[in-house]
């Protein structure tokens, strides 16, 4: 029997058209590869799938077609993420909810008593504000680094490392009160607070990467749940911190929060040790490339969603930073009354976040929803001072109504941004991989952290120059501008979808033409291969040149 290599040599020795020789070589190599693959399978390969060569989905890994055949051994031969059952998904959601709750507590735990302790040591108000604002600045710088580290180290390692860092630094922040020198105390506060922010940024970025990776069509709903838990942490932490401070002094609130983080870290580590709970990307060293960043930045929808996240964070943080001084000067409102106002507004945010997340996951008109929520949020921002454009006199009830209206609709404005960025990134050519999910998560939270940094700084400057009502009017105009942008995107989105479908159809047609051309070349190559094989076995016997038969020799 003629081997594939000898057959290829015979084919190229014959008078074949030059166009068909590459196709024949490809077909020959393909047949050789398939025979070697069959040999490897018969020898007992371990990379097997559960669908036994059939087109039915694998019960372990959800692959659409078995790549190697054989019986299921639990090895993912297709590279698809494992299908999680409902119980594991709930356990993972509980761990991520706990991380977001404690991260929210971390932001607002020291609000009631740290300024008092620092002022008792002779620290200025500007320095105290710097201790608070350095947290957002460190988060801004650490979020892109965390997004880049997730595909390299694995999402589980980044999340656990960030949570451990935040827990240890929280315990250290409670022990800083034992430092007698004021200068060393403030310097240590800045350093520990920045490291604490790095850990929180890593944990938060990893959490939302897991949401994008494992919750599929429920990304918007899960984002709303996590934002609700974060808001609960922001609302409850000052009250709990004040009670713990009254019961045990400066150190007890930080020790309690740090211990809770360590307990959650232990539970998360125990959960990650179970089979199938490590998630995709654990140990996959596929870094985020500049090409992915360029493709992400080429989408107009991604820029719009990042701008909405930035504007919402800036408006929110600027209002929270300056409302206390305005309420004290205008209404002689003390911290207790203002705390009730903030609690009511944050409670409305926590309740509506889940509703907006649920609704955003089911509506087809996401940008229209965002536009309406941005409009209502802008109206609430104008009513709080109130704005000079409205001609209304300030009142406590108007301030409360504006705060509640602003907080209730802010979640509906920016919660759909993260799942929309995931979909837009896939529409422009990025695959649904861990590196893409980490890149989108990092970009979203970088813009949000940038708003947290710019908002109080710009808001404080505007409040000092023109007053609190003018400052809130400027941020309301920014919110209204984003409302117009999202409305324009909502109107242009049907045209963009038709254009995208047309491009996809053209690509499919080109792929079909290429496949048909390849199949035709393979058929021709197979025909010439059979023809050459027939010539090898049916070629008439001929004598070599110069050979003389004995019957032609003369008789002596």
UniProtKB/TrEMBL annotation:
Cell location: Membrane
Keyword Transmembrane: yes
Biased composition (Low complexity): 30-50, 504-519
Main location: membrane
Cellular component, GO annotation: membrane
Transmembrane segments: 90-114, 126-145, 157-179, 185-212, 224-246, 252-272, 338-359, 366-385, 470-492
Membrane-related topology note: Multi-pass membrane protein
Disordered, as annotated region: 30-56, 500-556
SUPFAM superfamilies: MFS general substrate transporter
Compositional bias segments (type: Basic residues): 525-540
GO molecular function: transmembrane transporter activity
Keywords: Membrane, Transmembrane, Transmembrane helix, Transport
Protein name (database record): Int-mfs_transporter_33
Lineage: Eukaryota, Metazoa, Ecdysozoa, Arthropoda, Crustacea
């Amino acid at each position: 029997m003629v081997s594939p290599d000898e057959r290829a040599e015979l084919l190229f020795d014959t008078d074949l058209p030059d166009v068909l020789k590459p196709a024949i070589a490809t077909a020959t190599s393909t047949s050789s590869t398939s025979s070697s693959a069959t040999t490897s399978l018969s020898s007992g390969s371990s990379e097997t799938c559960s669908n036994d060569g059939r087109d039915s989905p694998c019960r372990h890994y959800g692959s659409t077609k078995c790549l190697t055949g054989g019986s299921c051994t639990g090895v993912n031969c297709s590279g698809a993420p494992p299908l999680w059952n409902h119980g594991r998904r709930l356990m993972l959601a509980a761990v991520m909810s706990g991380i977001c709750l404690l991260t929210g507590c971390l932001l607002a735990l020291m609000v009631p008593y740290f300024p008092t302790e620092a002022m008792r040591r002779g620290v200025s108000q500007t320095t105290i504000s710097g201790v608070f604002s350095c947290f957002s600045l460190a988060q801004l710088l650490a979020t892109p680094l965390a997004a880049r580290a997730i595909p390299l180290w694995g999402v589980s390692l980044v999340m656990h490392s960030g949570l451990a860092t935040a827990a240890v630094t929280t315990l250290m922040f409670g022990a800083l009160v034992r430092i007698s020198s004021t200068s060393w105390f403030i310097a240590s506060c800045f350093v520990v607070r920045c490291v604490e922010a790095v850990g929180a940024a890593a944990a938060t970025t990893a959490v939302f990467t897991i949401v994008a990776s494992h919750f599929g069509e429920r990304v918007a709903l899960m984002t709303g749940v996590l934002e609700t838990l974060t808001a609960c942490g922001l609302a409850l932490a000052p009250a709990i911190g004040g009670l713990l401070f009254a019961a045990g002094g400066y150190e007890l609130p930080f020790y309690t929060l740090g211990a809770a983080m360590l307990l959650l870290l232990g539970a998360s580590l125990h959960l990650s040790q179970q089979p199938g709970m490590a998630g995709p990307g654990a140990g996959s060293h596929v870094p985020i490339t500049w090409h992915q960043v360029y493709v992400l930045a080429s989408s107009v929808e991604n820029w719009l969603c990042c701008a909405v996240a930035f504007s919402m964070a800036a408006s929110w943080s600027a209002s929270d930073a300056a409302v206390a001084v305005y309420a004290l000067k205008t209404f002689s409102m003390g911290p207790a009354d203002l705390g009730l106002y903030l609690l009511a507004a944050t409670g409305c945010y926590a309740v509506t976040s889940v509703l907006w997340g649920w609704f955003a996951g089911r509506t087809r008109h996401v940008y229209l929803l965002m536009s309406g929520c941005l409009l209502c949020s802008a109206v609430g921002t104008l009513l709080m001072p109130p704005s000079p454009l409205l001609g209304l006199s300030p009142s406590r009830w108007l301030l409360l109504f504006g705060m509640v209206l602003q907080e209730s609709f802010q979640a509906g404005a920016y919660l759909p941004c993260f799942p929309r960025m995931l979909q837009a990134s896939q529409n422009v050519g990025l695959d649904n991989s861990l590196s893409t999910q980490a890149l989108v998560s990092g970009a979203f939270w970088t813009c949000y952290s940038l708003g947290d940094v710019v908002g109080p700084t710009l808001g404080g400057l505007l409040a000092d120059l023109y007053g609190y009502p003018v400052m809130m009017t400027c941020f309301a105009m920014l919110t209204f501008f984003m409302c117009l942008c999202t409305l324009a995107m909502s109107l242009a989105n049907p045209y963009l979808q038709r254009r995208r479908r047309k491009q996809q159809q053209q690509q499919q047609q080109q792929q079909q033409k290429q496949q048909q051309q390849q199949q035709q070349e393979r058929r021709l190559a197979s025909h010439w291969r059979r023809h050459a094989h027939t010539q090898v076995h049916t070629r008439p016997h001929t004598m070599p040149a110069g050979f003389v038969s004995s019957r032609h020799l003369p008789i002596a």
